[in-house]
Amino acid sequence: MAAKLLRRCEIAQHTSIHRYAEQELPLISHNPSSSSSPLASQSPPSNISSPWSPSPCKASRDQLGHPQKSIIDTDTKNSVSVYASLLRKCGELRSFSHGKRIHGLLVAKGGSNIIDDSNTFLANLLIQMYGNCGAMAESASVFYNLPFKNVYSWNLLMGAYIQNDENFNVYPLFLHMQMENIIPDQVTFVTVLSSCSSISCLLGGQWIHINMQFFGFEYDSIAGTALLNMYGKCGSLNNAMRVFDLIQEKNVISWNAMFSLYTKYERAKEAIQLFRCMEMEGIIPNKVTFITLLPACTSLGDLSQGKRMHVYILDETFDSDVKVENALLDMHGKCGDLDLARYVFVSMSERDVISWNVMAEAYIHQGQNEEAFNLFKQMREEGILPDEVSCITLLSACVNEGSLMEGKHLHCFLSGGKDKSDVISGTALVNMYAKCGDLHGAKLTFDKMQQKNVISWNAMVAAYAQHGSSDFCFHLFEEMLCRGVRATDSTYFSILSACSHAGLLYEGCFWFEFMVSFHGVEPTTEHFNCMVDLLGRSGQLDNGEALLYSMSSCRPNAASWATLLASCKAHSDVDRGIRIIRQVIRTDPESAAPYVSISNIYAALGRWDEAEKIQERRKGVKKQRERVTEYEFMDDDDDDYFFMSIQESDRKHQNFFTF
Asked: 301: phi > 0 → left, psi -120 to 50 → alpha, else beta; which?
């Protein structure tokens, strides 16, 4: 289209002038990938002719020597309209070559004589056209050669920088605009705030906020929404909430932006409450509202609220939108309503690959792994090509079922003739092979990965730890450190697990101390549990118990005490076992396991009366979780039964060996 319009324009012009302009106009070399900051050099490149400098065209007189008027002089308004249409079309089609030729015609035909501020008008279109074509050097050159810049000129160059992922140039340009005493408008603030959001420039965004207050845009719905978005994406949710409250006329976009931020910061409950406020104010939700809020229902497990939104969607006829239906499908599947999820899936008028992936994930989430495999086959039969997410989702089903053969089929599908795996799929395959018992396949996949991140290394280290290959586990861990990959808490959990399973007390203590002192990783309950298990296997029950009482960064859970209890049974430490059982009951009063354990200990010692009392106590346990602060066991024989409160226990063990 641009070529046809350009051809018509060329035919309409004087042929001789056009040919001469084509010969005399210096061509602009274009390399869209190369661009420079406007503040680094505020003058255009020397090889670019400015349309506002004297025209280099020598064909300004006829054969008799009289001045010759160009078509722009004779029919200015018509020419401006034609050139404006051509520039817009070149920008839409991203046709740099045609746009450059139109730029040349403007220079050759006396663009500096256009009246009624058309210079700035066409220059703005040139800035926009070059920006759409990715030629930021040319766009900036036109801008800085423009003698009279209006606010639209600045906005268009800022927008061009954002469009070409050069957000770092926008804020300096805004400061330059202030130095030129140009009054910003709504578009200016929205554009600059968008760039600050992209590069997480909170300080710059705060300065923009001050300017918005000065120029009266803080309460504007559009600019205010951009401001709260900036605060939210830069990590300042409280400021975003304050800005939201200040917006006088909130539209649905403002509400959606706030919903999105609450969901991003995992404050789903507040998002649902805000939605109720939106209903009370009579704001009609749109598709984006439900796409944003349904994940909040999912994270809360609030199926009732999700069903209310489902009714909204049906009333507003949004159920024909595939993105809304995918969000509904995901919510029902993860909230446990598999029947309704299946109904949504079957009734969808249009399904994309995401729909199939979400349905497969719902089946796996509910433990129906075979249905997920059947869905994958149906997907291929209907001509839907599975993507990487489809295969990774099904790999988790292979792990759940222990189906190595299905995992290998998925591996072949993922490879697709490639010798090397990428990071995400490769890590999932390593995990699948390891948990399905094929350590060799896991190592082979790991070695073929072209790129590895810390999660990939953790998966392979965990594979060795799970299979009891402690030597290979330590060797791979040392190689990981040598390559500059920083270990995480998951890495050290695998290392300590390997030490625990192999009974390597010295190595386990060394790596635990290395984790805390060298890498500064805060020990979690799982790390302490590994160390308690290691100490218990080595017969150091005193140190294991003392370690649990000395935990400061976290609290022992039922598994912590149960781990020590298993060691007490193994080493026939009855008295300690009874004491530990009380701690298990305190941390998990609903569990019947500790009652069974203490009953078995008494029965093994032939103390049947005590065993029967424990059984009666177990039957009377209430099925609700409550904090138990003390347990009292009384009998005539004080040597067998004793009273111990938590406070007394803490005082008794405060002088224990601190690990």
From this structure: left
User: In sequence order, what are the beta bridge partners of 644?
Assistant: 631
Q: Rounded to an integer, what distance in angstroms lies between the CA atom of residue 7 and that of residue 11? A: 6
> With bands split at pLDDT 50, 70 and 90, how would you rate the model's confidence at 104?
confident
| Single-letter amino acid code for the residue at 450 | Q
Residue 321 has which token pair? 């939108």
Whole-angstrom distance, CA of residue 151 vs CA of residue 298? 45
Q: How many CA atoms lie within 13 A of 483 on its CB side?
A: 13
pLDDT for 271 beyond 80: yes
Q: 285 and 316 in contact (C-beta within 8 Å)? A: yes
- Exposed / middle / buried, residue 157 (Cβ in 10 Å: 0-12, 13-18, 19+): buried
Over residues 66-96, the pLDDT tens digits come to: 344 443 344 555 678 888 889 999 999 999 9
- What are the tokens at 8? 């018509």
CA distance 561 to 568: 10
Angle at 457 between CA 361 and CA 480, to 5 degrees: 170
Question: CA 8, CA 5: separation in Å to the nearest integer?
Answer: 5
Tokens of 148: 């009279």
pLDDT tens, 356-368? 999 999 999 999 9
Angle, helices 252-264/287-300, rounded to nearest 10 degrees: 30
Q: Which residues does 324 contact at the CB level (< 8 Å), separation at least 6?
A: 287, 290, 291, 313, 318
Beta carbons of 465 and 458 less than 8 angstroms apart: no
Based on its alpha-carbon atoms, the radius of gyration of the chain, rounded to whole angstroms, reads 36
What H or E segment, with its residue span, contains residue 450? none
How far from 448 is each of 392, 429, 444, 451, CA to CA, in Å? 18, 11, 6, 9
For CA atoms 236, 238, 241, 243, give the dihedral sign: negative
Give the tens place of pLDDT for each residue, 8-17.
444 444 333 3
266 class by beta-carbon count within 10 Å (0-12 exposed, 13-18 middle, 19+ buried): exposed
Write down the CATH number for the domain with range 525-653.
1.25.40.10
- Looking at the chain, the domain(s) classified CATH 1.25.40.10 span 525-653
Residue with tokens 């989702």: 393
Q: What are phi and psi of 335, to 5 degrees?
A: -90, 5
Q: DSSP letters of 22-72?
A: HHHSPPPP--TT----TTT--S--TTS--TTSPP-----B-TTS-B---HH
Give the whole-angstrom CA distance, residue 360 versus residue 390: 8
